[in-house]
Design goal:
The complex is a heterodimer of chains A (about 250) and B (about 270). Chain A has about 250 residues and is an alpha/beta fold. Chain A has eight helices and ten strands. Chain A is globular, with a radius of gyration of 18 Å. Chain B folds into two domains: about 45 residues; about 220 residues, no CATH class. The longest helix of chain B has about 40 residues. By secondary structure, chain B is mostly helical. Chain B is globular, with a radius of gyration of 23 Å. Helix content of chain B is about 85%, strand content about 0%. Classes of the chains: A alpha/beta (about 250), B mainly alpha (about 270). Chain A: InterPro entries: AAA+_ATPase, ABC_transporter-like_ATP-bd, ABC_transporter-like_CS, P-loop_NTPase. Chain A: One of its GO terms (molecular function) is ATP binding. Chain A: This is Phospholipid/cholesterol/gamma-HCH transport system ATP-binding protein.
Chain lengths: ~250, ~270
C-alpha cells in the first residue's frame, strides 16, 4: 500500500504540491489525472525518492521512502515506464530490458538475463529479433513496449506508468493500454499511472485521483467518474474550455 | 527597486559583486563535492567493468589519431620556429634539445589536454546531459543504479589512466615531427639529432609530462561529467552544458599546467 500524507513540494517560489493526501491499496490500479504542470510527475518522483518532498510523509507498506534503509532493495520493488521511454541509447534492446538483471542484487548469468529479456519482449508483443537492435532503430510505439518490458523485467510489486500513451497513434495507444491492464492483472501488481488520456483512464484504472492546485481534488472508483458532481473533474473529463479550471496558465 | 538602484548605485554594484563572489564559491564547493564523490565511487564497489572498458576505448584508443596528428604538426612547427629564432643569435644547433624540452615538458601534455577538452569533455557532457534531459538518469536510479558510479566513475578513471599514455604518444610523435622537419628541411644529421634529443632529456622531464597527463585526464573527464549531470532542460540546456564543460576544462587544464610546472621546475 502506498500512502501520501500532507506532501508538499516547491521549486524555488513555485509551489507544486500543497498537501497531497492519497492512498493506493495493494494490487489496485490507480490513475492520476490533472492538467499539465499540476505536479503529477513530481508526485511520482517523490514516491520513488528521485525528488525529496519539503514536508509530509510517503510510505510504501508502512516503510517511509526517505528512511535510510536498503535503497537497492526498496527500488527493486518498483518498475517504471517513463514518458519518453528513457531507454539507454548505448545499449541494445535486450540489455535495456535486462538492465536490472545484469547488475546489482538481482544479477543473473548473462545468458539467463537475455532469455528473460526476450520472454518479456515477447510478452509485450515484440519478436526476439528486436533484442539486438538499438533503441534509435525502433518506432515510438516499439520503444514504449521495450520500456514496458523493462518495467516488468524483474517482476516488480509496484509499477509506475508516466504518460504511457503520449505521442502514440490511437491504435498503438489502445494496444499499450490493453498491455498495461493485462500485465497489471496478471502480475497482481500495484499500479500508479499518470495520464491526460481519458481513454487510458477508462482502460487502466480501478480508481482515479484528480490532482489540481497541488492537492487531490477528487478520488474515487472509475465507475463514478461520469456521475461525480465535482465541476473541476467534469470540466477535465469532458475537455471543456469553460469551467473553474483556468485555461490560461 | 529601480529607485534604490538610482539612489545607491555603489551599493547595487557591491551587491552584484557580492552575489557573483558567493556564486563562485558555491560553484567551487559543488565541484569539490562532485570530485570527492566521484573518487569515492571509483574506490568502492560495485565496479562496472564494461562501462570502464567502453570509456577506456572512447577516451584513450579513439583519441590516438587526433593526438598523433596534433603532436606531429606541433613538433614540426616548433622545429621551424626554433631554427628561425635561433638563427638570430647563431644558435640553430639547439633545435633538437629545445624541441625535445618544449614538447615533453609543455606542448605535448598541454596539446593533448586541450584535445581531450575538445574531443572527450564535449562528448561526455553532451551524452550525459542528453541522458538527463531524456530521463535516462532518473531511469538509472529507478533501476537501482547510482549514476555517479555508472557514468562518472568509469569515465574519470579512464581519463586518469589513459591520458598519460596519450601524452607519451604525443611527446614521441611531437619529437618525431621535429626530427622529420629538421632532417628534411633544415639539413640536420639524423643520428646526431636523435643523440642530442636523448642525451638532453632527463627523467623529471618525462615524469612531469606523464603526471600532467594524468591531471589533465581527470580534469577533462570530470568537467564533462559535472556539467552533463548538472545540465539544464531541453536542447539549449545540453548545448550550454557542453559549451561550459569545454571552457571550464580548457581553463582548468591551463591553470593546472602552470601549477604543475611551478611544482616540478620552479627552483
Amino acid at each position: 500500500m502506498i500512502t501520501l500524507t500532507d506532501v508538499h513540494k516547491s521549486f524555488g517560489a513555485k509551489q507544486i504540491l500543497r498537501g497531497v493526501n492519497l492512498t493506493v491499496e495493494r494490487g489496485e490500479s490507480c490513475v492520476i489525472i490533472g492538467g499539465s504542470g499540476t505536479g503529477k510527475s513530481v508526485m511520482l518522483k517523490c514516491i520513488l525518492g528521485l525528488v525529496t518532498p519539503d514536508r509530509g510523509t510517503i510510505t510504501v507498506d508502512g516503510e517511509e521512502v526517505t528512511a535510510s534503509g536498503d535503497r537497492d532493495a526498496f527500488l527493486a520493488r518498483f518498475g517504471m515506464l517513463f514518458q519518453g521511454s528513457a531507454l539507454f541509447d548505448s545499449l541494445p534492446v535486450w540489455q535495456n530490458v535486462a538492465f536490472r538483471l545484469l547488475r546489482g542484487s538481482l544479477k543473473r548469468p548473462r545468458h539467463e538475463a537475455r532469455e528473460i529479456a526476450i520472454e518479456k519482449l515477447r510478452r509485450v508483443g515484440l519478436s526476439p529479433d528486436v533484442a539486438d537492435q538499438f533503441p534509435a532503430e525502433l518506432s515510438g510505439g516499439m520503444q514504449k513496449r521495450v520500456g514496458l518490458a523493462r518495467a516488468i523485467a524483474a517482476d516488480p510489486e509496484i509499477i509506475f506508468f508516466d504518460e504511457p500513451t503520449t505521442g502514440l497513434d490511437p491504435i498503438m495507444a489502445g494496444v499499450i493500454n490493453e498491455l498495461i491492464r493485462e500485465i497489471v492483472v496478471e502480475m497482481g501488481a500495484t499500479a500508479l499511472t499518470i495520464t491526460h488520456d481519458m481513454t487510458s483512464v477508462r482502460a487502466i484504472a480501478d480508481k482515479v485521483a484528480m490532482l489540481h492546485g497541488g492537492k487531490i481534488r477528487w478520488h474515487g472508483p472509475v465507475a463514478q467518474l461520469d456521475v461525480a458532481e465535482d465541476p473541476y473533474l467534469t470540466q477535465f473529463i469532458t475537455g471543456s474550455a469553460h469551467g473553474p479550471i483556468e485555461t490560461v496558465r | 527597486m529601480s529607485t534604490t538602484r538610482a539612489a545607491n548605485p555603489i551599493l547595487h554594484l557591491l551587491a552584484r559583486l557580492g552575489a557573483a563572489v558567493l556564486g563562485t564559491f558555491a560553484a567551487v564547493g559543488r565541484l569539490t563535492l562532485f570530485t570527492l564523490s566521484t573518487f569515492r565511487h571509483i574506490l568502492t564497489p560495485p565496479f562496472y567493468s564494461r562501462e570502464f572498458f567502453h570509456a577506456l576505448m572512447n577516451v584513450g584508443y579513439l583519441s590516438l589519431p587526433v593526438v598523433g596528428l596534433t603532436a606531429l604538426f606541433t613538433g614540426g612547427a616548433l622545429a621551424l620556429q626554433i631554427y628561425a629564432g635561433g638563427a638570430r643569435f647563431s644558435a640553430e644547433q639547439v633545435v633538437p634539445q629545445i624541441v625535445a624540452l618544449g614538447v615533453v615538458r609543455e606542448l605535448g601534455p598541454v596539446m593533448v589536454g586541450l584535445m581531450m577538452a575538445a574531443r572527450v569533455t564535449s562528448s561526455i557532457a553532451a551524452e550525459i546531459a542528453t541522458m538527463k534531459v531524456t530521463e535516462q538518469i532518473d531511469a538509472l536510479v529507478t533501476l537501482s543504479t547510482n549514476p555517479m558510479k555508472y557514468l562518472a566513475a568509469p569515465r574519470v578513471l579512464a581519463g586518469l589512466l589513459t591520458v598519460p599514455f596519450l601524452v607519451a604518444v604525443g611527446d614521441t610523435v611531437g619529437v618525431f615531427g621535429g626530427w622529420f622537419v629538421s632532417i628534411k628541411s633544415l639539413d640536420f644529421n639524423s643520428a646526431t639529432y636523435l643523440k642530442n634529443t636523448i642525451d638532453f632529456l632527463e627523467m623529471p622531464d618525462i615524469v612531469s609530462s606523464l603526471v600532467k597527463g594524468a591531471a589533465f585526464g581527470v580534469i577533462a573527464t570530470l568537467m564533462g561529467c559535472y556539467f552533463g549531470m548538472n545540465s539544464g532542460r531541453g536542447a539549449q540546456g545540453v548545448g550550454q552544458a557542453t559549451k561550459s564543460s569545454v571552457v571550464a576544462a580548457a581553463v582548468l587544464i591551463l591553470a593546472a599546467n602552470f601549477l604543475l610546472t611551478q611544482a616540478f621546475f620552479a627552483a
